[in-house]
Amino acid sequence: MKRSIPNDTLLDIFRLDDEIIDIETNERGTVYPVVRCYDDEQVHLHFWCIHCRKWHIHGRGGANYPYQEGRGGMAGHRVAHCIVANSPYKENGVVLHVVGKFNPSVRKGHRKGVPLICPRCHNGYYSAALNACECGYYNSRRQSSHPEMAKRYQDFIKGEE
Q1: CB atoms < 10 A from the CB of 127, how many?
Q2: How far is CA 123 from the centre of its chain?
Q3: Residues 14, 30 contacting (CB under 8 angstroms)
Q4: Strand ranges for 42-102 from DSSP E
Q5: 3-state SS class at 100
Q6: Per residue in 95-119, pLDDT tens?
Q7: Rounded-to-integer distance, Cα 143 and Cα 146, Å
Q8: pTM to 2 decimals?
Q9: In this structure, are residues 7 and 31 in contact, taking their beta carbons and an 8 Å threshold?
Q10: How many CB atoms neighbour CB 152 within 10 A?
Q11: Pure H helices in the chain
Q12: Which secondary-structure segment (H or E) carries 37?
């Protein structure tokens, strides 16, 4: 069951996310996380997802497209490619903000892990940061890399039941 995460919960979760550098809200009150991304100056913009623990990539416009930091150029609002069903990034997408060039030291700075499969619903993957699945499963044996974020999400899930 897809649970829509309300704006107040999204804001709380986004404020606890190290990869989010800003939060944008449109005139209708829709919340968008602004995530730091890196330009490989060839084909892609890369951003690290704390939920599925992998790099997400988006097109940059090609090798001839000029390098541009910030939200201009080929950065800006994008649909999240997260494989995790309950990723808050999937709610409204993300805004890419280029903070630098993608290189091996940037890649090494992020701990890669395997996606976590839900043992209850077997419907797919659950967030490593939230330590929970949209079906209501919470992994109490595993410590989240973002415990405050996981607690806020659990409070939201418990409030819905």
Answers
A1: 29
A2: 19
A3: no
A4: 44-49, 54-59, 76-78, 94-101
A5: strand
A6: 999 999 999 888 887 777 788 899 9
A7: 8
A8: 0.90
A9: yes
A10: 17
A11: 7-15, 89-92, 104-108, 147-160
A12: strand 31-39
